[in-house]
Inverse folding.
């Protein structure tokens, strides 16, 4: 009798911010991308330091938290992603990754996916664990995969219909089938699914 292959450990991710809403929202997005990941939120670097910080694969850190313990986070540039408001990165070190949290959800999802796909330098951790591994055949038909790819690319129903040379009702029908098969309704989650299953590259969205 074969011994089942154990599931690889999913990455542990720390969010360091005193903004509870930001922490909750980011946690939800990360769990959509990596359902089995451990995500822990800390109100300050001191709280993080008290909870074995070295075990985390990534730190998502508010600017104020970064400034409060810059020496620690600068020593982990491939793990640290600083949460910024807008495109002004101020005096942050150039080697750090940043994530603009003041943007619509679809763009925020795209930026997160790009960070995941490009990794964080030579210390990228658990990259293969991000993609959901079901071991099953893809549940979508070739046309549904095509429609999903176009949805994730940001096209509207009428634009998808024109691209595929089909009627609008056909596209709507495919979208309905997609949501029923995948149990996913919003565009952001469909985008994550498409990238995580290799149907689309983050840089193409």
């Amino acid at each position: 009798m074969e011994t089942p292959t154990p599931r690889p450990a999913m990455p542990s991710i720390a969010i360091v911010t005193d903004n509870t809403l930001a922490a909750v929202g980011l946690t939800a997005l990360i769990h959509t991308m990596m359902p089995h990941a451990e995500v822990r939120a800390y109100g300050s670097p001191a709280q993080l330091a008290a909870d074995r910080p070295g075990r985390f694969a990534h730190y998502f850190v508010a600017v104020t938290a970064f400034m409060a313990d810059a020496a620690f986070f600068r020593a982990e540039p491939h793990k640290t992603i600083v949460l910024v408001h807008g495109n002004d990165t101020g005096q942050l070190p150039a080697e750090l990754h940043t994530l603009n949290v003041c943007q619509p959800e679809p763009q925020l999802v795209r930026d997160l996916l790009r960070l995941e796909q490009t990794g964080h330098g030579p210390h990228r951790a658990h990259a293969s664990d991000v993609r959901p591994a079901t071991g099953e055949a893809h549940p979508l038909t070739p046309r549904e995969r095509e429609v999903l790819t176009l949805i994730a690319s940001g096209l509207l129903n009428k634009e998808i219909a024109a691209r595929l040379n089909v009627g609008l009702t056909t596209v709507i029908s495919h979208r309905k089938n997609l949501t029923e098969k995948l149990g996913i309704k919003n565009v952001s989650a469909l985008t994550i699914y498409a990238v995580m299953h290799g149907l689309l590259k983050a840089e193409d969205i």
About this structure: The first helix runs from residue 20 to 33. The chain has a mean pLDDT of 81. The chain is about 45% helix and 10% strand.
